[in-house]
Amino acid sequence: MNKEQLIQRIRTLTHPLEPVSTGHATRLQKIRGIRCVAYDFYGTMFISAVGDIGVDEQQQQQSPGWFVEALEDSGFSISRPDVGPRGISIFEQTVENHVRRARDKGIEYPEPNIVAVWLDVLNELMESGDIRGDTSRSKAIQFGIEFEFRINDIWPVPNLSAVLGSLKNRGLELGIISNSQYYTPIAFEALLNQSPASFGFNKELLIWSYETGRKKPSTELYSLFTEAAKREKLEPREVLYVGNDIRKDIEPAKELGLRTALYVGDQRSIRHQPGDLKKTRYRPDLIVDDLSQINDCLST
User: Fold this and answer.
1) Residues 137 and 172 reside in one and the same domain
2) DSSP bridge pairs for 132
């Protein structure tokens, strides 16, 4: 499949989602000196059915069936009726193996390359006679999208395009720091009709975990961002980072000197207890339940 075909598959597999109201208190105030707004992807810019990249308990129960559907829609022939649960078991073990090897190399929070993972899984199923078909890299990429967007439906938060466009029109740089896989930027393009760079994000300020082999809460992703920001003549204090997770987003961003905003607009992506926000390391500059509030809080 080429990129346009992958985009069409994501559009077919995804469905509109609405935020689940939280009733969470907000903290809105004017912030001066911001020249760049950077975002987390899952649970912040994009509603996730499971609140983040990955799966929850309900998805785990349904995943064997979705695994079979993904195989069939990727063109594989199935030889054994238990290929669903068996495939999920192999997948989980393969991820563990990739993570362990990375940790053995000294990476504290590894982000496995999901294409390499799916290649290993599909090849093992092929060698054991569970499936028949093409186990090339391109087929693993196709299968990854067929499976991912069954287990984790995503959709842009309300008015995302308008919010981002408004910030861009004010002359602010836009960036992303996100746990992700190869399909994450493709999903952005599928659901907003433009790639992040075409939409107006500074391509130098797009930090995707799958490209680094490391994921949040590692501060290495944030260090890569601040280094890139300095090359763009931006100081950390001039960046507002917006995320939904106090431990993966707020704490490490603050440690690197970024200003922070906690998004609490969707119950599925809340990752803290009310008392946690009393701790200095988790306390953001802003708490918003609608991304449009960011624009209102930035002083000209």
Assistant:
1) no
2) 77
